[in-house]
Amino acid sequence: MAIFVLSRGKKNKINQLWAVLCIFVSIWGVGGFKFSTVTSKEDAFFWWRIASIGSIFIPILYYQFVCNFLNLRKKYLTFILLASYILGFTFLTFNLLFPDNFIGELRFVFNQMYFPNSFDQRNPLYFFFYITFYWILLLYAFFLLIKSYITSKGILRNQLKYVIIGSVIGWIGPHGVFLVIFNIADIYPFSNILIAIYPIIFTYAILRYRFMDIKLIFRRTMAYSLSAGLLTGIFAMLIITATNLLSTYVKLSSLKISVFAVLFIALLFNPLRNKIQKIIDRVFYKKTYDYYATMKKVSHDLVSMFELKKIFNYVGEMLYSTMNLRSIYILAAAPSGNFEAVYHMAYGKEKAVEKQDMAKSTGKGLLWIDRDCYIMKMLKTPDDVIIKYDLPATVDIHGEEAVTSVINTMKAFQGEAIVPVFVDNALAFLIILGEKRSGDLFSDEDISFLNTIGNQAAIAIKNANLYTEKLNSEKFASMGVMSSTFAHEIRTPLTSIKTFAQLMPEKWEDVEFREVFSKLVVDDVARIDSLIKDLLHFSSGKDLSSMEKVNVTSLMNEVLDHLKSKLELDNKQIRVEKKYDGTKVIVQGDAKKLTQAFSNIANNGCQAIEEQGVLAVNITPNGENVSISISDTGKGISGVEIDKIFDPFFTTKPMGIGLGLAICRKIVTDHNGTIAVTSEIARGTTFTISLPLMN
Predict the structure, then answer these.
(1) How many CA atoms lie within 13 A of 376 on its CB side?
(2) What is the pLDDT of residues 467-503, one digit of tens each?
(3) Do the Cβ atoms of 157 and 138 come closer than 8 Å?
(4) Where are the beta strands (DSSP E) in 64-146?
(5) Beta strand 386-387 with 417-423: parallel, antiparallel or unpaired?
(6) Is the pTM of this model over 0.85?
(7) Parallel, antiparallel or unpaired: strands 684-692 and 674-680
């Protein structure tokens, strides 16, 4: 471990200290192994002196490592370290020059090895060394670690957790030896095996949480291969052992043993291998989301989104929840070229906020990233994901100033990773992800997942831009149609008014002229007013402020009664049939607007009946909705026209601008309802409106 840690950070003081610490632990281990295996008392005494060299400096180096790892620079801590080294070299001097006064006389224990007999000899120096270093100094180092663990978060918290666990296990290990040394209990020092366990825990911290800034890519395939190889070796050993036993004691033939071995492997190998792989996934990779299922859902959902705000909100909320983040920002390219925050979510305040509100919520005022900053220089392709934890290793590539600037910018956004999203080879927006609430690092799989999400978001944004361009072109086209239609419809009454106004000075005395003029002007002004009202109704937003309980039956009765009166005045041979009873059917809505929709459709039905016919109305409650059908026996609508009748400014009438049915559909939609039409040429047309019933 010392060689490995040092090779991964030769210039890092923490790595250097840990390597030296491992070397002294090795000295303790080698000395302990030798004094427990030699047979002569003199050889045991020699190896006890060697082992003591390691045991003297292990606590000092560990304390120094803790202070450096936690970046503690207080004077009293430096004083403790200096005093510890002075004591350490004092103990070392006695160990090398006056070992009888430090280690003392040895005694034979467990019928196997020699141990110091410090208790019987009342050896105060060795006891002072033990209490000072292995209780006071080490426990104080543990206190510093625990104190930092309580206040830390994220990856540092996880690193400290395993440092504390590994250190406590390593501290307990040698106490089996000290129990025998001080004659507290003659228990065989099995606890020494814990000294070998604690490096495994530190190795896990390196693999899982990049302890001491060591990035070791332990790929899943490598782990699976190693586990499969280990399992194969175990099976091979079991089969060889079983073969020897069975052939010796049971006298089975080699063929039978081979058949048994094949069956044994076939039944157990795959289940055990799968179980081990699941354990590896859980211990080393801790997969918290289904990569492919999530990507499938994201692809499906983004296809139907054509608004940038919805895309930003969806991507932000999905990443925040899926990756269990503490915070997330999305910054979009502004016209100035800078990137401004358009979305933010943080742990404890789980909501998206507008850009204007974000300044109040964050209180930092840093809601944008300059287009000329170092981050932009690092983000050249969609694959250039920036991980803050990896930035120090790129100083040789980008320079110390650039790396420091990027780290400071990411800190302002509580960011741990930046994902660029390119649209048409141009950087469109940035996703700044905070740390995971679990404290885990962003794995290679996470990076792949983020790249894929960025690509999907880029496609969605491109589609949204194309959709917006299409809408704008259609909007301008509709404005052209509306302008020409509206101009045509207004020009006719205005021409009449202008003509009569020009003739008025000459024919004012003509009573008949004045009567015709008065009637024409009133009718034409009413016509213009009606056109303007239709246009305003169509262009107005959803306004249902006057929502109330509406009895559809009663409302339809009023509409049809008014229609009958109008038909009688116009001498139309049209029969109005009510195919519903007087049962109340209650919906929540705007009575005036519903009346307008029903009247418009009923009037259109009467206009479609050229001479005589029937207008039939039916009201049918159906579960949670009510179905209102209005049918006529008119000329019908062709298949080409029926697809366009709800389009604004489409009309087959010589008079009108084609907004009536568009307004009807808008009214029904505003009431959370639907409207449909069926028609047959020369047989008639049926409009069916469905509205939600009140509970």
Answers:
(1) 16
(2) 777 766 655 555 555 555 556 556 666 776 777 777 7
(3) no
(4) 106-109, 113-116
(5) antiparallel
(6) no
(7) antiparallel
